[in-house]
Amino acid sequence: MSTDARTTGTAEQRLFIGGEWVEPEGGYYDVINPATEEVVAPAPEASPAQVAAAVDAARDAFDGWSRTAPEERAAVLDRAARVIRREFAGYAELAQAESGATTGTARALQVGVSASRFERYARGALEPVESAVPPQINAAGPMGGAGVFGAVAVRRPVGVVTCITSYNNPWANPAGKVAPALAMGNTVVVKPAPQDPLSVYRMAEALAEAGAPPGVVNVVSGARPEVGEAAVAADGVDMVSFTGSTAVGQRIAEECGRGMKRQLMELGGKGAALVFDDADLASAVSGIGTTFSFYSGQICTAPTRVLAQRGIYERLVAGLARYAEQLIVGDPRDPATVVGPVISAAHRDRIEAYTALAVKEGARLVTGGERPGPESGFYVAPTLFADCTNAMRAVREEIFGPVVTVVPFDDEEEGIALANDSDYGLLDYVWSGDVARAFRVAGRLRAGGVGVNTIGRNMEAPFGGFKHSGVGRDVGSYALHAYSELQAIVWPG
User: Is the pTM for the entire model greater than 0.85?
Assistant: First the structure.
């Protein structure tokens, strides 16, 4: 099967196990374009036995890959990045067809970020793995004579890592797992999201061309839950890295607990955005407004739960309404489009159910709430609710769509209390003209990250969540730490 055939969806995709393209025992299922409802291409359905074979292939490859020189691992990752950049246009076209992303998002934030992550972890493979430990003077005793004992902490690869990826970014999300895992000397079994798995096979293809040995990277897809379950439960798996809903993450954690497997979990979010009376409202509106447009709200870091101090409450609501109403919803291939479709009909229906629930709970629908124009495709209008309370389900639960709720508050203490009154704690945001207050408030928020007067990210800063938003941290060098175990080596001086 040629690269072009797989990229354009003109041939049936096969599984990638042990360096071979393998016919799926479970047959095929259709990958649907969210913008047109047309079939992009058939995707392979792995059997549990084939998942086990992928784990065995990763296990067999681990010893050799883990002992490969860091410079060689770095070279493989760097060459993979070059392949991704060489095939950039075709990969972006496929990503757009699978995920419904706008052209700019598919190119820059999906494929482009993926290439950048492989480049980053090519450098990461060369980062020192040893950390000095202060020497310790021991007196003579039952354990032996007196002496000075040196020690060093060394990061070692965990082993075989199952990577279960999210549908909102079929390139950057798997690259953020696979690249640091391989840089540290692990081998991987990737289970892509069922909605858009084809891009992950292109990533595996790029790594194979770059010289990744057979079994170092394996990809097994499927629409049935048995595929993911087998990839988590297999005895040969040492770690599971998962991005997705909290409910699924909890089930994975239970299985990992039985086998004492390491976990890295990036789960749900319901980001609180505290906007104080002295905030730059234009900045706050443009930052919060990305919830309506960026991935059509299908992103766990979105500031979906706005907490507005009463002095600017009505002006902020009006500004967000104007922002939402000027956004163009439509075909993501059209350069004018800002808001594309959501991933599936089922997810569109779920978002619409939350919209109806918010109205029933007493929220004021300011704008949106209807199904927008295109006759085909899974579109949701940017939707804004005001006069909400923290008790409403639409405020408390992750909707994962272009829906923003606004809750008023009176003073700093109430704003902090409302922000922390949540099961989630991934990314929160603070807008205030008083930077000292903004940082003081940030220090009291129970979230893994806080944006002060920005929704921007520092891609070397640790990323992960408190509470039900996850376990562990990745991004930058923290991802290398996440995919490693610490070993202590001690010797007498």
Answer: yes
